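Customer ticket, subject: "Can you confirm the structure for Holliday junction branch migration complex subunit RuvA?"

Message body: Hello, I'm evaluating your service for our small team and ran a test protein. I'd like someone to confirm that this is what the system normally returns, since I don't have a reference to compare against.
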Amino acid sequence: MFAYIRGQLVSIQDESIVMDVNGLGYEVICPNPFIYQDSLNKELLIHTYFHVREDAQLLYGFKNEDQKYLFTRLLSVSGIGPKGALAILAGVNIPEFVAAVEREDDKFLTSFPGVGKKTARQIILDLKGKLTNTFTVSVDAEENYASPTTERVELKEALEALKALGYMDREIKSILPQLKKGIEQSANTDEIIRKALSLLMKK
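Agent reply: Thanks for trying us out. I re-ran your input and got the following:
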C-alpha cells in the first residue's frame, strides 16, 4: 500500500514534508526533510512505506528504493523502530553501512544516534549476509570504510558545538546536506564548524 507518492511538495517541516496530490495533503516523515529544499513547490516522487500501529498510521518517505528497502530491513532488527531506523538513514551511506555490517564493525555502527553496542550487535546478527543480496559492496567501500572515518566523528562534534552555540535542530538540519558535500574528508572539527557557520549566515 502506498508504494510511492507523486505530487507537489508544498511544505518542509523538521521531521516531515507535505505533498499535495490532487488537493489532498499527505504528511510524509523523512530521514532528512531538508534535502528536498530545491524541490519546494515542484512536482516530486517519494518512495513510501505505510506503517500501522495501534495508536497511529504513519507514512514514511525515501529518495529511492534502496533507502526504503534498508528502512524495512532495519525495522526487522529487534530493538529498532521507525524512529531509530530514520536516525540511521539520515546520515547513512548505504554501501558503507553494508560493508560495516559484513565485517561486524560494531564500533562504526555505534556512531549512529541511538545505536549502542547491544543494538549494533543485533544489527549484525539480524542483517549480516542479507543486505548483500540487494546492495553491492565494492572493494573500494570495504577499503575506504575499514574503520570509522574521522569525518563522521568530527562532524558529530561540530554539530554538537553548533547546538551549544544556540542553533536549533531545524537550522542545523537545513544546512546539513550542503555541509557534508562541502567539507573534505580530512577536515577537523574547527574547519567543519567554520563551514557550517558560513552556511548558516546565508540563511
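A couple of notes from the result: Residues 66-144 form a domain with the DNA polymerase; domain 1 fold (CATH 1.10.150.20). The chain has nine helices and five strands. Feel free to reply with more questions.
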